[in-house]
Amino acid sequence: MWPSFCRLQVFCMILAVLAILVLVYNFRQLEHLDHNTVSALNWIKETGDQQSSSPTTKTTQKHYCDYEHQTLSKREQAEEESLFAAIQWPNPPVGKIPFIRSTDPAHSNFVIVNSHVRFKVGDQLEVSVHMKDFQGKPKQYGGDYIQARIHSPLLKAGATGRVVDDQNGFYKIFFTLLWPGEVRVSVSLVHPSEGIQVLQRLREERPDRVYFKSLFRSGSTSETTVCNVCLPGDLPVCNFTDLYTGEPWFCYKPRKLSCASRINHAKGGYQKSLLTPSESLFFQTDVNIKVPILPSGPDSVTVEPLGFTESANLDRSQGPAVFPLGYYYHDKWRPRTSWIRHFNKTADISECLQGKVVHFFGDSTIRQWFEYLTTFVPDLVEFNLGSPKNVGPFMSVDLKHNVLLKFRCHGPPIRFTTVFSSELRYIANELNGIVGGRNTVIAITIWSHFSTFPVEVYIRRLRNIRRSIVLLLDRSPKTLVVIRTANVQELGPEVSLFNSDWYSFQLDTIMRKMFSGIAVFFVDAWEMSLAHYLPHNLHPQDVIIKNQIDAFLSFVCPLET
C-alpha cells in the first residue's frame, strides 16, 4: 500500500510542477507582448476610425522601430508628401565642402534696395543679402538659414522679415513697414548651408542623440534601462506603445524585473562626438552660429506716417498671404489679423476667466503661461499636488471667481527630469476625456522635444492630436482651442545639434499647416520672440510672455466690435 501511495504522491508533485511552469510561461508571454501584435491592434483601431471607403496601404513592420512604416490612408499619404514639400530645404552641391568655402557672415553683406526712396507706413522694404565664403569669394548656391527683423529701439517696435532664397548665393528679404520713424534692418546668419546639411543628416541618422531612461522597481530590486522611440539591436524590449493612439515607445527590458514594474521616465542625456572634426567647424560661436551680417551702405530708412483710417486698415489685414502676422509697438504686440486686448490689471484677467476651466497641454514653454497667470493673479492659488518641480501635473484654483487652471506635460519623448509612469499621458487621450463646452479652454504646444527625431514621428503625434481636437469640437463646438507656436532660442555649438532654430522652424511650419482649416486659434510665439529686442531664449522673458498671454486671453474674451 505504501509504495502505491508514494507513487501517487510523486505523480501529483510532478503535475503541480508542470502546472506552475505552464502558468509562468503564460505570464511571460503576456509580459513580452509581441510588437507586431500591438501594431496590429493599433492598425485595426486606426482603420476602424477611417471611412470604410478610404483604402489603406500596409507596409512591413520594422522590428521595434515603426515610424518609417506607418499605416496611412491615401489622404494621409498626400498630406505627408505636401508637408515634406513645404519644409524641403536647398542642399549644397554634392561632395565634401571644406570649411574655408562655407558661408562666412563676416565677409557677407546686405544692402537696402532703393534706400533713398521716401517710404510710407504700409510700404514694402526689400533687402538683398549677398553671401560669401571665408576667402571672400561669392557663394554660388543657397541653403543658408537666415533670420531678419526691422526695429526701432526708441519705440520698442519690431517685426520679422520674409526670406527668399534665390539659390545662387543671393537672398531677398521683404519687410512690411508698419510704424513711422527711423526703422533699422538687422540680418543674422543662424547656420550656413553646410551646417544645415549636417543637421539634416543627424535628424535622419541619429534619432538616438538624446536618450531617455526608465526606472524599474519591485521591492528592494531596481534597474534602470534606456528608452526611446526606436531602440537598436536585438536585446529584449518592453513595448509601451500606446494602444489608443499607436504612439510607439520602448525600453530595454530589465534583466530581473518585469516590464510592469516601470515607475518613471526621465531624460537620460545627450550623445557626444556626433560630428567629425571637419563638420564641427560649421558650428562655432561668434563665427557661424547666429552671427550678424553687416550692411554695405545704410542700415535704416525713414518711414512717414499715414492717416488714422489708413493705419487702422493696415492693422486689420486679412488673408493667408499676410506677413508679418503682427509687430511690436511700445513693447506691445499688435496682431494684424485679429483684435487684441491688453490685460494689464489682474481684475481684468479674473473677469475674463471667471467660471472657466483652462487646460494647458505641452512642454515647458506653455507651462510658462500657467506659471505667469498663477503668479500675476493674486486670487489664483496653486494647489499642491506633490508633483516634481517643473514637471507637473500642476493645478491652480480661484475659488472667488470659480477658475481652474491645469497643466500637464505631453507624453514621451519629453526631456524632463523625472515623470512618474502614471503621469505619462498623451495629449490626444487627454482631449478624448474632456467634455468641453463654452467654459472650457484648451491651450496646446508641442514641438521642442521632437527636434531630434525624423519628421514622421512629429507628424504622427500632431495627426493624433488633431483627430482628438476635431472630435472634441464636434461634440462641443463652443470649446475654445488655442495653439501656441514654436519660438526661437539662444544657440551654441552643442544646443544647435539638438534644438536648433532650424529644427524648430521646420516643426513650426508643419504645426501651422496641420492645424490650419480647423476651428483653432494661433498665438504666434515665433514672431513674438523673433521680432523682440530681448536676447533669444527657449523660455522667453516675462515681457514676451505677457504679450503671449494677452493674445491668448483675447481669444478667450474677444473685444466686442
Keywords:
14 helices, 30% helix, single chain, six-stranded mixed sheet, 561 residues, globular, alpha+beta, seven-stranded mixed sheet
Protein topology:
Layout: H1 2-31, H2 35-49, E1 56-57, E2 72-73, H3 74-86, E3 109-112, E4 119-120, E5 124-130, E6 145-152, E7 157-160, E8 162-165, E9 170-176, E10 181-191, H4 193-205, E11 210-218, E12 221-228, E13 237-239, E14 250-252, E15 264-270, H5 277-280, E16 291-293, E17 300-304, H6 308-315, E18 326-329, E19 332-335, H7 346-353, E20 357-362, H8 364-376, E21 381-383, E22 394-398, E23 403-409, E24 419-420, H9 427-432, E25 440-444, H10 455-475, E26 480-484, H11 496-499, H12 501-515, E27 521-523, H13 525-530, H14 542-556
Parallel strand pairs: 4-17, 20-23, 20-25, 25-26, 26-27
Antiparallel strand pairs: 1-2, 3-5, 5-9, 6-7, 6-10, 8-9, 10-16, 10-17, 11-12, 11-15, 12-14, 13-14, 15-24, 18-19, 21-22, 22-23
Task: Describe the protein.
The strands form 6 sheets. A 7-stranded mixed β-sheet has the order 21-22-23-20-25-26-27, covered by helices on one side. Strands 4, 6, 7, 10, 16 and 17 form a 6-stranded mixed β-sheet that branches. β25, α10 (455-475) and β26 form a beta-alpha-beta unit. The protein contains 14 helices and 27 strands. The protein is an alpha+beta fold.
